[in-house]
Every structure is written in C-alpha cells, then in structure tokens.
Amino acid sequence: MEPPQHDILLSLPLSSLPFTLSTVICSHGFFMLPPNHWDPLSQSLLRPFRLSGPTSSSLLARISQPDPHALLVRVYGTREMGREEEMEVRRQVGRMVRVGEGEERRGEGFGRVVRGPGLFEDMVKCILLCNCQWPRTLSMARALCEFQLELQERPMNVSGCESNGSNFKTSAVQTEHFTPGTLAAKEARIKHKRSRVPKKLWREDMIPDGGGSRINHINVSKCAQMVENSLPASTSSEQEANRGESNVHNEIVAEEGKATLEETEPLFDPKMGNFPSPEEIASLDENYLAKHCNLGYRAGRILKLAQGIVEGRINLEEIEQFSTDPSLSDYEKADEKLKEIHGFGPFTRANVLICLGFYNVIPVDSETIRHLKQVHGISTTTKTVHEVVDKIYGKFAPFQFLAYWSEIWRFYEERFGKLSEMPPSDYKLITASNMRTKRKRKNKNEIMADQPKIKVTMYMVAMKQVVLDARGLWETSF
C-alpha cells in the first residue's frame, strides 16, 4: 500500500503591485508551450520544475494567486523539502514571472513578458520559433517534453510501477513508435517516409562516467495521477521551525487558496515529462533527435547548444549575468556571446535577449510584416521592414519590443478573445491565415436586396449610352 502523499505550499511575496497572474503568464506565446499548462478555469499554471543536485529530479507544481500580495506555489506529491529546494522553486517561479532583481521596474507601462524557469529552456524555445508556423512550434515543444520522459525511463529499463517514499518510477515507453501528438493540420497531411530509427540512442563518446546524463527518476508522471486527489498541506514541527517567519504568510495564503484549487484540478498529461536538460540532450544522435521530435534542421542547433553547455564552452550563468542591471553595453556583450553559438542568427538572438530583459530590439519576421500591413496599413518587405519598425517604435526606446508586442497581443485578443480563457486545444488556431481579414460572404437575402440597386445601375448606364449615341448621330448629320 502506498504511503499517504502530501503537498508543500510555498508563497512568493509580490513587492510590486498591482500584479495579476493571468496577465503576466498569458503575455507571450511561451505560456502555451509545453511543459507549461495554463488552466483557464482556475487561472493557474501547472508545470514541472527541475531541482538541481545529484538526482536532478523534477517536481510538479501549480502557481496561483489567491492573494493579491503573493503567489501560491503548490508542490505535489512530496512530504518534505529542504530549505535550498524551496528557494530553488521560488527562484524558478520568480524568474518565470519576472519578480525580483529589478524586473518590476522594467518596461513600466507595458507589463511583464513571461519566460521559462531557466535560460536553456528559453533558448531552445527561441530556436523552435524559427521558420515555421505556431502549430509546428507547439508540436515540437510537446514532442521534446514527451521525449524527455522517454529518455529518463528508457535507460532505467523499468517495468511496472514502483513507489519508494516520495520517489516514483513509471513504466517504460517504447521509443521506436514515438510520434508527436499535436502536429499541425497542414503538416499532418504531408506523408513522411518512415525510416528505421538509428540503433544507437546515445553517442558513446558523450556518455559521462556514472551515466550523468540520465536522470535517476522523476516525480512528474506519478504526481500527475495524484493531483486530482491531492491532500491538504501537512508539515512537521521541524519543517515549521526551518521555514521561519515566512511560513506564517504561507499558512494564510494556503487557507485562502484551498477552496479554489481543490475543486478543479486538471491532470498533467502523464505522457509528458519536463523540458529536457542539456545533459539529457547532449549525448543524443542528431538524426534520432530530429526524427523523434520532428525538429528538422533545428535538432543540430539544439544538440550543439546542449553539448556546448555540458562541455563548458557555453556558460549560461555568465550570459544571464548581463541582465542583472541591463544597459546598452550589457546588451552588446550578451549579443556577442550569443553570436558565438552555432545557429543563433539575428531573429533567435533577439528573442533570447528579450528573455534576458533587453527590449530595445524587435525580432522581425513574417508576422511583423503582416502586423504592419494589417494594423498600420504599411506594406513592407524583408529589406524595408527594419527601417519601418525603427520609425514606428523608436520613440519607445529602450522598450521598443514591449510597445510592439502590446499591439500584437491586443490584436490577437481582439481576434481570438482573451487568451487566458482560451482552451489549450485551440492554441493551434493562432496562425497567419486566421489573422487575415476575411471578406464577409453575403447571404441569399442580402444578395436579393441588392438586385434593385444593380438593375437601377444597369439602367442608368444604358440610358447614358443612348444619350451619347444620339449626340453622336446628331453631330454627324450636320
């Protein structure tokens, strides 16, 4: 019999008010990308968070805002957490919603733009934005999270389901039959030839001693099955003492959040794991990664990024340090560092720099050209769009992107409704074809109502022609 499971409740105080979780989270398409799961009913975000350490395990957590002065983070399926683990979860949540480190003061008047809990996830998702429509980006992000679950289960060779305290192992998944579950409708019609999967999953020269690239276990899959029956928080007296004065606020927030959270608890997809870590990707075969996650050429760029991080050639902490107190010189230094990474062109770099808090450059693509034409009535090309963008948004420096994105996001919500209330199944509808203004087709009654107007117009044209003919005849007669 499994031991009773408990949830840990953590609070994240908000020093800058007003703060609305739905507005902050649902401020960029990143909130739609797995492993993020935004619940439009409870207005909360469910996703796994990776804890650093020798086990590198992941915990499933829900972020909500029952109190206007603090966020509530509910960690599922664990009886206890060390102080360092609590601080790590708070740090990752704070990074996502840009709380702390002066983020509240940035972009005043435009609001925050959501990002991931770590820079590696942001960088990979920026690669997934390149040269494809939004449904394809959604499918690739989901495929990577599904693949991450396979990567940790396949080397363990687990059969059945075992429990050991708060650590759970789930049954292995056959990677030979892996296919992304959310392909875009247009791409789903394309018949891809199936080729045999490479026999070697890991490159032998990339496997570190002791199997460091393999996560020992993950709590996400099992926790997802327990969310619906989650129990109230329960902590020992020792944990209460360790948490200190902040725990008093935790209990207040927890009491306010119980009623809303326990009523509607959607399950986290058990087929999906966390977002892959650099260590999990670095030892993979490029063709294997490309085929299993439908990444195409992006697989090579993601693989080289992960290998650079694991081998120490790419220092993410050094890059992120530039965003502590951003300035133009810091922007240039960060941009130079990103230029050294294989496959990071202007568009990808601009998106990564936005995640770092630099908003002075707008990532320009076909969506920018469409927006300028449809909203501003200005036709541009890939050669002229940068000049037009600078002319329109230059006055908002150094927050050009925030001004531009606030227009884009407002247009999306006018077209599709409030995105924080959109069900996840509709995310794939946000495509360029659905952005275009469509001519309203007239019904039968409207067509019949126009018939008299058409007849009168035809009669007037005919009478004018008769007059002209008569005038011509009269002039020729004399």
Task: Please tell me about this protein's structure.
The chain has 478 residues and is α+β, with helices and mostly antiparallel strands. It is built from 20 helices and 7 strands. It has helices at 21-25, 83-97, 119-128, 134-153, 185-188, 220-226, 237-243, 246-263, 278-282, 286-293, 298-310, 316-321, 328-339, 346-356, 366-375, 385-393, 400-416, 432-435, 444-449, 451-477; strands at residues 8-13, 37-39, 44-50, 58-67, 70-75, 162-164, 167-169. It is globular.
Largest sheet: 5 strands, antiparallel
Q: Mean pLDDT, nearest integer? A: 76
Strand content: 5-15%
Work out the helix count. Answer: 20
Helicity level: 40-55%
Write the layout of secondary structure elements.
Blueprint: E1 8-13, H1 21-25, E2 37-39, E3 44-50, E4 58-67, E5 70-75, H2 83-97, H3 119-128, H4 134-153, E6 162-164, E7 167-169, H5 185-188, H6 220-226, H7 237-243, H8 246-263, H9 278-282, H10 286-293, H11 298-310, H12 316-321, H13 328-339, H14 346-356, H15 366-375, H16 385-393, H17 400-416, H18 432-435, H19 444-449, H20 451-477
Antiparallel strand pairs: 1-5, 2-3, 3-4, 4-5, 6-7
